TrEMBL record:
InterPro entries reported for this sequence: AKR (IPR020471), Aldo/ket_reductase_CS (IPR018170), NAD(P)_OxRdtase_dom_sf (IPR036812), NADP_OxRdtase_dom (IPR023210)
Binding site residues for substrate: 106
Phylogenetic lineage: Eukaryota, Metazoa, Ecdysozoa, Nematoda, Chromadorea
Residues covered by the NADP-dependent oxidoreductase domain: 16-263
Cross-referenced PROSITE patterns: ALDOKETO_REDUCTASE_1, ALDOKETO_REDUCTASE_2, ALDOKETO_REDUCTASE_3
CDD domains on file: AKR_CeZK1290-like
Keyword terms, alphabetized: Oxidoreductase
Entry's transmembrane regions: none
Protein's name in the database: Aldo_ket_red domain-containing protein
Positions annotated as active site in the UniProt record: 49
Length: 321
């Protein structure tokens, strides 16, 4: 079993999960292998990636009960404000689940056409809190939030985010942001933990890997989880999927951690969000370019209601699938 960490509301989250970003395509067999054979229980996706429906088919067809999985997806900015409930309902329908373990706001940025940006961010978080308070989601979070973004959210939040998912790897990490989040009780969750493989041939990294008898990728993942940062590498290769979970049988020394952390540079940030507002209206999953492989046709209907989570709810049952 993959070890877990605990969110501020006592929900346990696996330290290693499967990333499903739309870069590189979607391979149904690889997702099933990760769950059935490699022990992955955390599945991280987003509306933007365009693979929620495919993941729903995989989750329905895997050998692991839904209650043993930790499923998280993200709200895209065009659905912020009064579109939160509909976006949540649609994601759940595609994922074939009547609840989420973690629902995140994908980023603090909003489309340029929204004039009252701060008010919209506040309204969005209010709706996220309602989903949490009414048991539609087990935890709520944000992604790509800076210290300033978290400060703004803290001014109006009744419930602070349980997690903030950010780019986090040895070549780019924000210690000040992580420290600030730790003080708030907001768990830092990492994406892009291998920096898309750009620096895995680094000489010092390879020396540390050789010392521990591990691959450079495993050292990067261990660097994250040893700091209690859950991380979600993506792979479609069965051997790498298994390798990515085998990082709990060794420890990096303080010297190892310090050397790896010293790599960090703003210039080595992988994900560029500087022009993201110009891309917000692009189709979800546009980076897939049709690369979706091995997904069978659904053989039965998706459940259409959720009476359990609607019970004693302030939100109407129509919010659920």
């Amino acid at each position: 079993m993959i070890p877990t960490t605990t969110l501020s509301n006592n929900i346990e989250m696996p330290l290693i999960g499967l990333g499903t970003t739309h870069s590189g395509g979607y391979y149904h067999d690889a997702v099933l292998h990760s769950i059935n054979k490699c022990g992955y229980r955390l599945i991280d996706t987003a509306k933007r990636y365009g693979v929620e429906r495919q993941l729903g088919i995989a989750l329905k067809g895997c050998s692991v009960p839904r209650e043993e999985m930790f499923l998280c997806t993200k709200l895209w900015p065009v659905d912020c404000g009064d579109g939160v409930f509909d976006a949540f309902r649609t994601s759940c329908e595609k994922l074939q689940s009547d609840y989420l373990d973690l629902y995140m706001i994908h980023m603090p940025h909003l489309p340029d056409w929204i004039r009252k940006q701060k008010e919209t961010r506040e309204e969005t978080w209010r709706q996220m809190e309602l989903l949490y308070e009414d048991d539609h989601v087990r935890s709520i979070g944000v992604s790509n939030y800076s210290i300033e973004d978290l400060e703004e959210l803290s001014d109006f939040a009744s419930v602070l985010p349980h997690a903030n998912q950010i780019e986090f790897h040895p070549w780019f990490h924000q210690n000040d942001l992580k420290s600030y989040s730790d003080e708030l009780g907001v768990l830092t969750m990492g994406y892009c933990p291998l920096a898309k493989g750009k620096y895995l041939d680094d000489e010092i990294l390879c020396q540390i890997a050789n010392k521990h008898g591990k691959s450079p990728a495993q050292i990067c993942l261990r660097w994250s989880v040893q700091q209690n940062v859950p991380t979600v590498p993506k792979s479609t290769d069965t051997k790498r999927l298994e390798e990515n979970t085998n990082v709990f049988d060794f420890e990096l020394s303080e010297e190892d951690l310090a050397q790896l952390s010293s790599f960090s540079s703003q210039k080595k940030k992988i994900v560029d969000l500087s022009n993201i507002c110009s891309k917000m209206s692009l189709p979800d999953g546009y980076k897939l370019n049709g690369r979706v492989f091995g997904v069978p046709e659904e053989s039965s209907e998706i459940p259409r209601n959720c009476s359990e989570c609607a019970r004693d709810s302030k939100v109407s049952v129509s919010v659920c699938i």
